[in-house]
Amino acid sequence: MAPQLGRSGFDAAVAKQRMVLEGRYLQEHPGTPYADINDKLFAKANGKAPESMTGRLLADAKQAQQTLIHELEKLTEDPQHPPDLEAYHKVLTQAVRAQTDLLGAHVALYEQALTDPQLSAADRQHIERSENAFALHAQQTVNLIPGALKTALTKADATVSALKQLKQPSEDWEHISTMLSDLVEHTSVDGEFKDALDNAKFPVKLQQLHQHNDGWGATAKAVVAGAVPQMLASGLAFGFARAVMESAVPNLKAQAFATAPVMAAAHEVGTNLLKPMSQEMLGGWALKPVKASEVIPNPNPRVIVDGELKPLTAEQKDAAMQEVDELRGRHLNAQQANKNGTGIGEAEAFGAFGLAQGIRQGIGLAKPHIPVEQFGPRTLASMAGGLIMGGVQSGAQLRSTVPDRRGRELPTHTFKEVDKPLANRLAKAASDAVLASDPSNPEVRQSLFSKTYGSLAGLGSAMAVSSAARALGSDTPAQQFGQVLLAALGSPALLIPAYASFQAGAETDAHQAALEKERETQELPGPGAPAQVPTSNFPRTQTAMQNIRSPDRTDLPHGSMPGTWGRAAENTYHRVRGGLQVASQVPTELTELAIKKVAAHLGEGSDDVVDPQPPGAFPKK
């Protein structure tokens, strides 16, 4: 929607003066609603504010909003006499446009003032105080418009249904419903109003995020919420299950083959049951990612040029959107940095487990009477490694931010909201764990197979390191230092192949989704014909190959910025992971294919039975 004509008279210097005055007034009278500041601050200024255009915009928007809500409330008072569509549409669109002008103008003025390099620190504080007050005004009052439109749309749809049941004409109401639906889309989903509103509300949103995230208390909560669940899962799979199986099978040749499937099954239990249950027990301490669109809204649809409010031109919109996309990409990289599947995140994991195992070995050398090779100390060391890994990763996620053009720090994570009783949340976690463990689901089977083959490769690597340690001896201090170092290196030797296989399913899903999105943008092969894309029995292997050939692609997680030496190093690491994934995903998919072939052969000649499970009954892993 284009802005209303005559929106001129915006003087940057005068607007800055007004904002500073508003900030000073708010400093003396905190909590004053923004809409009241104009009357109270300029009541005796000869009846005219220093910058009259923003005051006029505020008055126009207030009047238009009242008119809109009044018209929407009386919409269905007389279903037999619908309002004139053209006149009604004009009233509603004018109200939406007035609000868009108000929001867009203020966002543009604040942006101009706060990006001025000559702005003093004191004036910056006053202007930011004014900006936050306006953001709160936008959040509290302008949000009424989308809600009122949705309510009116519900009433209009109900009127259409009622008239159809009564076999009475409903065409006029159908047109009104369509018009309201378009306005709901424009104000709530995608449109200039929503873009302007998102920009106007953003300071309050950012302030709320920092109130939740900042401080050592918040960091401690995040560390505990990440450390405890990971401690339990790692202690079960990489500590207890591995130690018990290796003790039960002393033959080194058979040890890896016996231990790998047990470790894989234990990891499934830890991932699907222990971690979710313990996270729910910690309540609102667990973290969730912040959507990039929440902290990096689409460009403001209004701009002030030579004192006149104008819509963005196509060129300006493209340039602004390119800047937004670039910042969102940086936000995504920072969000992924401290998670498994990226170079930084896995370095934190390998360092944590290596440190724990090195300390365990050092204690054994210093205190030979302590049986550090038994499953108890080995389990405790794995639990300690998981504790450090989970705490470091979660704490780093909470502290991770990306600066925008104004230097504001945009968080990548925040705390999850808890809106249900603990018993309900635990029940859901248990139910999800049952579904995620159903062997009739191909995704569940392949997840287990992948972890088994990946663990097998990792155990083989770890055994090679152990053999080197046995050959080294431990008589001299240098040899003992070598023993500690090799014990620490044994963890990444095990975990690099294992973690590569653990991430294969999620990376395959992301790559397939990216391919599907790319296909949708391509030209269709014929009029109205869908693009024909052959399906593959080896999508996991194909994705692993892509990790070798194209590690810099956007659907593969990265924790480093494009074009940096860090990204070059991470891409090299992804190529190594891709090679390890090929080694684990080829047997995974061959095993699954064999199961399907056997099931198909056994099913030949049997009566057709309807699958009792509806599509999508099982969650993808």
Give the SSE map:
Elements: H1 12-28, H2 34-41, H3 52-73, H4 85-114, H5 121-142, H6 144-165, H7 171-189, H8 192-213, H9 216-248, H10 252-281, E1 287-289, H11 292-295, E2 302-305, E3 308-311, H12 314-336, H13 343-366, H14 375-399, E4 401-403, E5 409-411, E6 413-415, H15 422-435, H16 442-472, H17 477-502, H18 504-521, H19 539-549, H20 565-603
Antiparallel strand pairs: 1-6, 2-3, 4-5
Helix pairs in contact: 1-4, 1-5, 3-4, 3-6, 4-5, 4-7, 4-8, 5-8, 6-7, 9-10, 9-14, 10-15, 10-16, 13-14, 13-17, 16-17, 16-20, 17-20, 18-19, 19-20
Notes on the protein architecture:
This is Effector protein hopM1. The chain is mainly alpha-helical. It folds into 2 domains: 202 residues; 344 residues, no CATH class. It has 20 helices and 6 strands. The strands form 3 sheets. A two-stranded antiparallel sheet has the order 1-6. A two-stranded antiparallel sheet has the order 2-3. Strands 4-5 form a two-stranded antiparallel ribbon. A hairpin with a 5-residue loop joins strand 4 and strand 5. Helix 4 packs antiparallel against helix 5, helix 9 packs antiparallel against helix 10 and helix 17 packs across helix 20. The longest helix is centred in the C-terminal third of the chain and has 39 residues. The radius of gyration is 31 Å and the shape is globular. The relative contact order is 0.08. The N terminus and C terminus are likely disordered.
Beta-strand percentage range: under 5%
- Helix vs. strand class: mainly alpha
- Largest sheet entry: 2 strands, antiparallel
Span of the ends, CA to CA? 43 Å
**Helix-strand topology string:** HHHHHHHHHHEHEEHHHEEEHHHHHH
* Tally of separate domains: 2
Helicity, as a percent range: over 70%
Radius of gyration: 31 Å
The overall pLDDT average reads: 88
Characterize the overall form. globular
- Taking strands numbered 1, 2, ... along the chain, how are they ordered across the largest sheet? 1-6
What is the tally of beta strands?
6
Protein name: Effector protein hopM1
Biased composition (Basic and acidic residues): 510-522
Organism: Pseudomonas brassicacearum
Region (Disordered): 510-538
